[in-house]
């Protein structure tokens, strides 16, 4: 009892943007109300079944709707596309209006006929509970399990039998649809947001709540590749870039410790980059982090991404020059064009901190 049934589908930003609305906001998750708006209306595009007097089958809806009355759907259908204008959809006496529905996942469209169809969707907010409509799927033509019965039972007048069988048909089709779509739950690009944490546990991604949805999808998609890099400098750089959107500077002990230098310079470098090979320094520019909370999350991420017994020093550069501290030409400091100094306390060296040398006087 399988057949391929065509449908029209709205389930992403691109498909929803083909319609229009009032006080409606289109997001990657679906359509919802604009902020501070109590109600709004969305009009789908006009859908063409390419067959006159088409009998439409049913409507499948998915979304986060706090109560059924938060979503009202008016179904307009006609053989003339000119009859499905915005003005006609707004009219209380529209001739082509054939059904009015509230939110339920499966809606049968008995009596809805016409080559063209269009939906008007009214959203309403109560008690600060915002409805989000994520998926609209419109199936046609009308099909029934009565076609598998003897011809005696296939008479269109047998509405009771058709409606009765429709209960089991809907259950069967819903289960069959979930089985067909099950493989999509295991792909990072198609899995719903609520399944990402579950998928991340398969790949031993620690603290998945630290990541945004887009970042978590990337980690799942490239999990095997990143697992092979774990414990390396390349792995740390990729994880930090994914989290911050900026490439860090990573200084390891071997990069400077084995050069010939005097003791004074070595002491300064040890203060900046650590005293042994178990210490690495991660340097970010000052505009990368927005606050203390993000700083703490970044420190937590560094602990997860570095091998055991490795000490990590996190340095956030300031756009000033500090002697014997982290000042790098072309990164957080630069040489400007020459100009004549003006000793007015503002233009010449505006940020100078000097420490007076201690002097000992013998009495």
Question: What is this entry, summarized?
Answer:
It is built from 9 helices and 15 strands. With 363 residues, it is α+β, with helices and mostly antiparallel strands.
Which keywords apply here?
363 residues; alpha+beta; Jelly Rolls; six-stranded antiparallel beta sheet; 15 strands; 22% strand; elongated; disordered C terminus
Give an overview in words.
The chain has helices at residues 13-16, 86-90, 159-181, 196-202, 213-221, 223-229, 233-244, 263-273, 292-305, and strands spanning 7-10, 20-22, 24-27, 30-33, 39-43, 47-48, 58-64, 71-78, 97-102, 106-108, 116-124, 132-139, 249-252, 279-284, 311-316. It is of the alpha+beta class and 363 residues long. Among the domains are: 7-143, Jelly Rolls; 246-355, no CATH class. Helix 4 runs parallel beside helix 5 and helix 7 (233-244) packs antiparallel against helix 9. The chain is elongated and about 100 Å long. The N and C termini lie far apart (110 Å). Residues 348-363 have low confidence and may be disordered.
Topology:
Blueprint: E1 7-10, H1 13-16, E2 20-22, E3 24-27, E4 30-33, E5 39-43, E6 47-48, E7 58-64, E8 71-78, H2 86-90, E9 97-102, E10 106-108, E11 116-124, E12 132-139, H3 159-181, H4 196-202, H5 213-221, H6 223-229, H7 233-244, E13 249-252, H8 263-273, E14 279-284, H9 292-305, E15 311-316
Parallel strand pairs: 14-15
Antiparallel strand pairs: 1-12, 2-5, 3-4, 4-12, 5-11, 6-11, 7-10, 7-12, 8-9, 8-11, 13-14
Helix pairs in contact: 4-5, 7-9
């Amino acid at each position: 009892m399988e057949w391929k049934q065509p449908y029209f589908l709205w389930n992403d930003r691109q498909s929803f943007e083909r319609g229009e609305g009032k006080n409606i906001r289109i997001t990657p998750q679906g359509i919802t109300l604009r902020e501070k708006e109590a109600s709004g209306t969305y009009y789908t595009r006009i859908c063409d079944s390419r067959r006159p007097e088409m009998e439409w089958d049913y409507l499948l809806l998915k979304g986060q709707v706090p109560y059924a009355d938060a979503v009202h759907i008016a179904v307009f259908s006609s053989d003339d596309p000119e009859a499905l204008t915005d003005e006609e959809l707004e009219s209380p006496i529209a001739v082509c209006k054939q059904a009015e529905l509230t939110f339920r996942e499966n809606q049968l469209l008995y009596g809805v006929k016409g080559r063209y169809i269009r939906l008007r969707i009214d959203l309403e907010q109560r008690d600060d509970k915002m409805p989000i409509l994520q998926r609209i799927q419109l199936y046609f033509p009308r099909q029934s399990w009565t076609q598998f019965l003897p011809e005696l039972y296939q008479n269109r007048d047998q509405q009771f039998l058709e409606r009765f069988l429709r209960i089991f048909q809907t259950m069967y089709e819903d289960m069959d649809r979930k089985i067909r779509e099950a493989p999509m739950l295991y792909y990072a690009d198609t899995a719903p947001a609520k399944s990402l944490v579950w998928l991340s546990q398969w790949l031993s991604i620690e603290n998945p709540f630290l990541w945004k949805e887009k970042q978590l999808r990337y980690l799942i998609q490239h999990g095997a590749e990143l697992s092979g890099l774990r414990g390396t400098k390349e792995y740390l750089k990729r994880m930090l870039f994914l989290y911050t959107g900026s490439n860090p500077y990573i200084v390891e002990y071997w990069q400077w410790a084995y050069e010939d230098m005097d003791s004074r310079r070595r002491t300064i470098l040890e203060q900046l980059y650590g005293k042994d090979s178990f210490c690495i320094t991660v340097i970010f520019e000052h505009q990368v982090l927005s606050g203390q909370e993000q700083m703490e999350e970044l420190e937590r991420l560094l602990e997860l991404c570095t091998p055991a017994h490795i000490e990590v020093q996190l340095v956030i550069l300031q756009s000033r020059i500090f002697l014997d501290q982290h000042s790098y030409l072309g990164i957080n400091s630069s040489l400007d064009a020459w100009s004549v100094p003006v000793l007015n306390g503002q233009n010449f060296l505006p940020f100078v901190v000097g420490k007076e040398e201690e002097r000992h006087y013998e009495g």
